[in-house]
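Last lecture ended with a question: if I hand you only a sequence, what can you say about the shape of the protein? Today we answer it with a concrete record. The protein is CoA transferase subunit A. Below, first the input exactly as provided, then the predicted structure, then a couple of comments.
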Amino acid sequence: MQKLYPDAAAALEGLLHDGMTICAGGFGLCGIPERLIDAIRDAGVTGLTIASNNAGIDGEGLGKLLRTRQVKKMISSYVGENKEFERQFLAGELEVEFCPQGTLAERCRAGGAGIPGFYTKTGVGTQVAGGKEVKSFDGEDYILERGIRADLAIIKGWKADEMGNLIFRKTARNFNQPMATAGKICVAEVEEVVPVGSLDPDAIHLPGIYVKRMIVGAPYDKKIEFRTVREREAA
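The predicted structure:
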């Protein structure tokens, strides 16, 4: 099977439609599928539900799709650096499902493993538990969380071979791996594609069976989510 496509638009052809659910990899601005996000923006699909650790920042990452008003609902754990997200949420223009970070990762992993739901102590007794089933195990309360399945997963990898066996680099591994398995179809963008057999099998983070389509997105500009500098000391 030929998995490598010439660009993001070609890799997403026939996969996008209004009202779909997308799992998007990335941690802050690290390991986000930039080229695929741009292609989704350019395709103009609307009413999207997106599960992602974060919503990018204003004008970067998933913030691009918020700015164009293509997102109906976000399932996220951290959204603190996106003013447009805040504005839309407070104005009632964006539906938001806040989810503890570890629970979100497990919901996507569970969905990819065919597990429809699981019980966790995280969120018991808080607003997170609102409307969810509570069950007692060994005298402790747990809440039921549903696994997440998406129409499409978009992820960013570091290096892949031609069969889609993929390696993530450092922090980018945090959410890209579970998001990839939660999508009915996974499209990956990577920095480099090498011949089959070039990668150490023990170093593979995501087997190629999960990756249906792939592009090379390099080169990338390294972006900083929140720049903090100290004041210059007096001479």
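Comments.
1. Residues 8-120+129-216 form a domain with the Glutaconate Coenzyme A-transferase fold (CATH 3.40.1080.10).
2. The chain has one domain: 8-120+129-216.
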